[in-house]
Write a structure and sequence with these properties.
This protein has helices at 5-17, 89-98; strands at 21-29, 32-39, 42-45, 64-72, 82-87. 23% of the residues lie in helices and 36% in strands. The protein is globular.
């Protein structure tokens, strides 16, 4: 499933409403994997440069959703606390509806 601007905005809104969580989204485009972290409404790629303009999406135009991890904030790279791992988009959609985000 392609990550659209609307999906990116939904994920950013969720993270603003749930500052106790960090979202880590894995995507792929042309067999190149990327990981995007979203925290308090801001997105940043962990594998490629992130545009300094927050109005520009960090997701590439043809990025395909692979999975999503929900982590406890604060994010500690050497000792992450996972709330849920390897979520498919359908599971995240259900969570967005459930939490009204």
């Amino acid at each position: 499933m392609k990550i659209t601007m609307a999906i990116a905005q939904q994920l950013e809104a969720y993270s603003r409403n749930h500052p106790e969580e960090v979202l880590l989204i894995t995507t792929t485009e042309a067999d190149i994997e990327d990981q995007v972290m979203i925290f308090k409404g801001f997105s940043s790629s962990l594998m490629r440069p992130t545009d300094s303009n927050p109005d520009n999406s960090v997701f590439t135009a043809n990025a395909e959703f692979v999975c999503l991890d929900r982590l406890q904030s604060p994010y500690l790279p050497n000792d992450p606390t996972y709330i849920e791992q390897n979520m498919f988009w359908e599971a995240m959609q259900n969570l967005l509806v459930e939490k009204n985000s």
